Amino acid sequence: MELVKVTIDGRQIEVAKTTTVLEAIQKAGIKIPTLCYHPELRPEGACRVCMVEVEGARSLVASCVYPVSQGMVVRTNTAAVREARRMVVELLLANHPKDCFTCARNLNCELQTIAADLGLRGIRFEGKRKSIPIDANNPSLVREQEKCILCGRCIRACSERQGVHVYSFVKRGFNTNVAPAFEVGLDKAPCTFCGQCATVCPTAAIVEKDDTREVWQAISDSTKHVVVQTAPAVRVALGEALGMGPGSVVTGKMVAALRNLGFNRVFDTDFTADLTIMEEGYEFISRLNNGGKLPMITSCSPGWVNFVEIMYPELLGHLSTAKSPQQMFGALVKTYYAEKSGIKPQDIVSVAIMPCTAKKAEAAREEMDSTGCGPDVDFVLTTRELARMIKEAGIDFSSLTAEQFDAPLGISTGAGVIFGATGGVMEAALRTVVEVVTGKELDCLEFHAVRGLNGVKEAEIPVGDLKVKLAVTHTLSNARKLLDKINSGDADYHFIEIMACPGGCIGGGGQPYASCGDIRQKRLNSIYECDQCSSLRKSHENPAVKELYDTWLGKPLGEKSYQILHTHYHPQQRG
């Protein structure tokens, strides 16, 4: 690797010749403002907030796209640089809505933060407001383009990270905005509702649909019995949104906070993650033994399910028919739990706390109604929404004493918690499938070949006399690679796990905003820490799951379990 010497604010450093000026500045430990730049997306140089002086250049340069060269001298903090940055931000603010106090990103907005850091206390320019209708006709996301600063991050995240290509710039000049083709709403575009656009948006131009008002109303209704389930990835991210370090494990505090908010029962989605393994694992064994369609592909991630329904409907037969843990839980709450508790299903309000915006759309699917009384999951809140409710209630989260989930739907294993990480569903399934097929206990429960943040991971695992070939991937752009291999006949896998978001659920579209690689790694580490600390680590050893089958469901893939816990997917005609 060829190195060059660069002087930044009087300090000389060595960097690779392929480095940008911004990367060199960051390596030197200097912070400068950026808006269109994102460390995981292609640099674009659109906003010009990161301008610096380069000795010999005719004008200030956008450091995120300007390459270094041998002997370059860079100055990041001259009067001209500071004035140029202030000018750029003032011009953005001149055309921006002035509703910061009521904005969804208030105190968590990159534009607001940069304006404060630059010392802006007034705007010298009188701008003109765009008039673009709010796009909210879908269950998951709200797009308010008057707040868009045209940074292009959402376009790049959707195309580069997800390979879906929903967004592009439309129109010209002042009227330029970001929209799907023909400027239709997301409900009519080929959007998977994964929410990765929202995670990279620096303002509130794209946010999750807020359902907190409806949940508060349900909690306040004395005629309703309100239960809540919490997904595995929430417990390693909620703390971030409440001022704790990335990857903080806050399971017990989260349970205590939910009880303080007024939920009647606090349950764990990990319980139905274990149940999913039983149904999905036995389904895989059945396909192996009976000539079923292979490779079987997981169906836990609703963004991924939307993607295959829209983009690859010819491959729907490969998906497991097992519902996601969220929807299995919702179905059980409105059937099993209602029956055992003597509460009418229509009097139960089922709430899910998820790291995912697509889970809102999943809960709204017509087929997710096990009783005929309405949705199995009435409301889905993201990790961000739960954090807002905790703040609104004035709960001092850090001082809470840890509490336990309610039984029996709060009893789970380490296999259930690793669902929150890419490769986790596969590893949890292997722990059960190998032992069921061989009748022998595993010597080691860790399947490291399917762990980690690599784009596509492959492994061959002996299951009895058969070498089972596996693939694990995350992000929809990587999913496309595997699906194209299946269509071309080049895929000889038996089982594939696909998650829509980077890192799996830990990087979901509803997680706290600072969701880049190092933070996802910390969350990932914490997920496996939770598994290691679990007294039970295999789904088929969950005593509450065993009792559920013995007393109510019968057996995995049995008539009753298939009716309640399985579904079928269908092509979506959008876009």
SSE topology:
Blueprint: E1 3-8, E2 11-16, H1 21-27, E3 51-54, E4 61-62, E5 73-75, H2 79-94, H3 110-117, E6 141-143, H4 153-161, E7 167-170, E8 177-180, H5 196-200, E9 206-208, H6 212-220, E10 225-230, H7 238-241, H8 251-261, E11 265-268, H9 269-290, E12 296-297, H10 302-311, H11 325-341, E13 348-354, H12 358-363, E14 379-382, H13 383-392, H14 414-417, H15 424-438, E15 456-463, E16 466-474, H16 476-488, E17 495-499, H17 517-532, H18 543-553, H19 559-565
Helix pairs in contact: 9-11, 9-15
Which labels suit this protein?
alpha/beta, 575 residues, 4-stranded parallel β-sheet, 5-stranded mixed β-sheet, Rossmann fold, 19 helices, Alpha-Beta Plaits, 3 domains, Ubiquitin-like (UB roll)
What can you tell me about this protein's structure?
With about 575 residues, the protein is an alpha/beta fold. The protein has 3 domains: about 90 residues, Roll (Ubiquitin-like (UB roll)), CATH 3.10.20; about 80 residues, 2-Layer Sandwich (Alpha-Beta Plaits), CATH 3.30.70; about 350 residues, Rossmann fold (3-Layer(aba) Sandwich). The chain is about 35% helix and about 15% strand. Strand 1 and strand 2 form a beta hairpin. Helix 9 packs across helix 11 and helix 9 crosses helix 15. The radius of gyration is 25 Å and the shape is globular.
